[in-house]
Amino acid sequence: MGFISITKTRKPRQFQYIPRYYDERKERLQALIERAQKENGEMTEGVFSAARMQLEFQEARAKRTKRTAKAQQRRTLLILGALVLLLYLYFRL
Asked: Are 54 and 32 in contact (CB under 8 A)?
């Protein structure tokens, strides 16, 4: 702790903020390339194209899975709504 001073004011605390950008796709591509380099022992153009192709397949599969999940949710809600409507009409009569 410092001494209390009337004439001097304290400087505001400073902080170090380093903005970072995280690119998951780039990181996965780099990991695939490094794995292929370890397997082959050298860097070739075929390794890059194979890694990119594998990454594109993974991304396409993820999109397809997401679309399928949304379609299942819609279908479930539609069936549930139809059942509720049928039950309403059944008990109303």
From this structure: yes
**Given the structure tokens 């170090």, which residue do they identify?**
16
pLDDT by residue (tens digit) across 33-85? 888 777 776 655 666 677 778 888 888 888 999 999 999 999 999 999 999 99
**Hey, what are 2's tokens?**
């410092």
With residue 22 as reference, give the H or E element that holds it: none
Is pTM, for the whole model, over 0.85? no
Choose among 68, 66, 34, 32: nearest CA to 50.
32
Buried b (16+ CB within 10 A) or exposed e, 58-69: eeeeeeeeeeee
